[in-house]
Amino acid sequence: MKKNQIDFELNAIIEKDSHFITDLELCQLRLIDNVDFPWVVLIPRLDNIVEITDLDNVQYGMLNNETRMIARVMQKAFIPDKLNLATIGNVVEQLHIHIIARYRNDKLFPKPVWGHKLINYTEEKLLETIVLIKNTL
After folding, report:
1. Mind listing the pLDDT tens digit for each residue in 84-97?
2. CA 136 distance to own-chain centroid
3. Whose CA is closest to 65, among 25, 94, 30, 99?
4. Would you say 45 and 109 are in contact if contact means Cβ atoms under 8 Å apart?
5. Dist. CA 50–CA 82, nearest whole Å
6. Residue 77 pLDDT more than 60?
7. Is-contact 30 21, C-beta < 8 A?
8. Boundaries of domain holding 32
9. How many contiguous H segments (helices) and E segments (strands) does the chain have?
10. What local confidence, expressed as pLDDT, does residue 5 receive?
11. How far is CA 50 from the centre of its chain?
12. CATH number of the CATH domain containing 49
């Protein structure tokens, strides 16, 4: 792994709004602190990456593989009706992929989750959710 993958700087907003789960080969996997939706983000551990086009071909392939792998983990762990994947980046420029498990009966379906108040995890539920994701990897 390249040195800049180890020493990358995580955006302060992502760090504040999420919890570390694990490091993959390219990305850091984090759980968004919102108990209403099983919601993770993948952040390439590279400095100064804003757009997917900033990745070289090998990194792009790794990101796609890790995104698909984590999407499958989310499907297996949470059995959603739909997975939402997004790379919006209007608030946080640092490239990050959202993977959100959605259910027809969740509080916002079919509307997007963006811009709604986050309901933080309790310590117990946070630990339970992180363990579920790690055990499903």
Report:
1. 999 988 889 999 99
2. 15
3. 25
4. no
5. 27
6. yes
7. yes
8. 3-136
9. 4, 5
10. 53
11. 15
12. 3.30.428.10
- When pLDDT is cut at 50, 70 and 90, the band that residue 6 belongs to is low
Instruction: Check if the beta carbon of residue 65 is closer than 8 Å to that of residue 79.
Output: no
Strand, helix or coil at 133? helix
The CA-atom distances, in angstroms, between 127 and each of 36, 70, 99, 108 are 15, 18, 19, 24
Q: How many CB atoms lie within 10 A of CB 21?
A: 19
Please give the tally of structural domains in the chain. Answer: 1
Amino acid at site 48: N
Bond before 110 cis per omega within 30 degrees: yes
Q: Residues 115-127: pLDDT tens digits?
A: 888 899 999 999 9
Contact 40, 59 (CB under 8 A): no
Q: Beta strands of the chain (E only): which ranges?
A: 18-23, 27-32, 39-44, 82-86, 97-102
Query: Mapping DSSP to helix (H, G, I), strand (E, B) and coil, where does residue 128 land?
Result: helix
* The token pair that represents 64 in the structure block: 């796609």
CA distance linking residue 2 with residue 16, whole number of Å: 26
Name the residue with tokens 């919102």. 34
Nearest to 62, CA basis, from 93, 29, 27: 27
